[in-house]
Amino acid sequence: MIRKLSSAIFLWLILFCNGGLSVRAQVSLQQAIQTMLERNMQIRQAQFGYDISEQNLIQSKKELYPNLSFGADNTNIYGLTFDQTSGQLIQGDAWTSYANAQVISSVEIFRGFQKVNQIRANKIQLAIDASEVDKVKNDLTLSVITNYLEAITNNELYEAAKQQVRLSSEQLRQDSIQFAVGNKTIADISQSENQVATDELSIMTSENAYELSMLNLKQLMEMSPDTTFELEKPDIAEIMAEYAVLSFDDVFQKALTTQPNIEQAGYNIALAKKNIDIAKGGYYPTLSLSGSYGTNYSSRAMTAGELPGTFVLRPFFDQVDANKSFRGGVGLTVPIFNNGRIKADINRAKLSYLQAQTADAIERRNLERTIGQAILDLKFANKQYFTSQVAFNTSRVAFEAIKERYDVGMANSIEMFTAQTNMNRAEFDMIRRKYEMVFRGKVIDYYIGNPITF
Length: 454
Description:
The protein has one domain (about 1-40, about 110-285, about 335-450): Outer membrane efflux proteins (OEP) (Up-down Bundle), CATH 1.20.1600. The chain is about 65% helix and about 15% strand. It has 11 helices and 10 strands. The strands form 4 sheets. It has a 4-stranded antiparallel beta sheet, with helices on one face. It has a two-stranded parallel sheet with strand order 1-6. A two-stranded antiparallel sheet has the order 3-4. The protein starts with a helix and ends in a 6-residue tail after the last helix. It comes from Sphingobacterium deserti.
């Protein structure tokens, strides 16, 4: 309840900020995931499948009860007819009116436990659809994590690119001054202008990538593309400490209990096994009870009049009372030969059971492979991040040293801008590696069911 309330407040803040305030709301990763879970259309679609299965379960339970129906009809016949109510042949040019009504009920007492097994199968199907909803939520959660971290990465790349443009623009300004007094050549100026253009291109590229990842994130959250908010950056040091020690066995065992794919595969096995029992029920006899109560009326039914030898139409309610009837019956159907259909149904159900077991084994093997790969990716991302930090620091020191030499004329423009390009690339690579490491850590959280937060 508190989580839903905080999400509602968060959405209100975003809408309020879009109304014209300069303050922009900050959206955490957890808030983005919660908003997606509450609003995404794919989750609603999966929920409808669950609701349909729930109705199927309710219907299968009601199949155990007797049915009950009421029927009535009125028929008018002109001319020749046989009146079953009065037991006479009617001739002549006249209308005869008939009416009847009946209440009918029947119930199957036994049908090879098929109805009971169908109820159990529908319960399993309901659990399968519930796990399908969880699966859709998990997949979309991973998409939110991916786009959220991509947006942060591209935003930092954008900020770094702007800083690089400021640096190269300042260098161009200084070189223009030196060129004016004859200390720099036209080649130096051209190289400076080329560096500015290259850095400006990096700004446009990273800005476009940032906008695209933000658009994808807003679409997952079912928000308008015009919605504006800021993202919360993670604490890198804390995340690195959190994943310092990871055991494959621990992660894999936790993932087995949290991943909907594994849960769904287990339910599919149970459903396939229950379908075998349903198919075997076809070999058993079917025992049913039925009963009906009815009455009828005829416009030709006569009764003795007050005067001797005279007849008058028998009153409606007298006929209804006199013509009532009750019928009851017991039905037994024993299958003897059905062209091999039941045997084929059983064989198909058994094959489906084996198929479900194989699918479960494949899911477990895939999860094992995925967890192993995720842990290796996280460890590799950590190493890459440390290496990229060293590369950036050394390239920055090299750039600063060459810049000092360039300013006093001891290095040429090619050396200067090669060093600057190397530093820029190293900074971009460090930013990417940093959030790649965060993403790999969040993937581990995703598989073991930990809350996805920074």
